[in-house]
Amino acid sequence: MEMNTLLIFPENNGINMSILARLLIYISHHLKLTYMSTKTFLSIATLLFFFSAVSPQSAHSQKNSAATFNGAWRSVDNKGFSVMHDGYFNGVGQDSTGKWTEVHAGTYTVDSDSTITFKVLYSSHPDHIGAANTAVYSITGDNVKMRHFKKLVDAQGKDITDQMPKDAWETSTRLK
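Above: the chain sequence. Below: its structure as tokens.
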């Protein structure tokens, strides 16, 4: 299945749209949308556009820390992609069967102790909306390594960190 998609981006938003375009092209052409319907793809593209085009209302120093993560990222196992920009993130990934059905989007904050906290605002799993995941990270060149679930608070505000794997590492590479 081949799909031509036209997205219109607002002018002067300060974002390198080529990153977003490359991510969309990679997903649509390299993965051939084998398991993704047109509706799912357009939903993901809309989320990518929305979270890439909006700037957060945060302090200047926090924005600079968040800017460290600006760009498009691909997991080293090629099962997940995300776009992060000035405190906003979105991601798409494969479920356990290999279908591209996992979608999350929201905000993130970078703390001074090498942690990043993701707050889920939109998700393909409604019970994830409102959850907050704090991960420890390290960045080396264009690679980021995160150990998820330093703290995980579910959508109801309950700390469920003890229920999560203790060694949940993820490594991603910035797309160029």
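Confidence is low (pLDDT under 50) at residues 1-17, 55-61.
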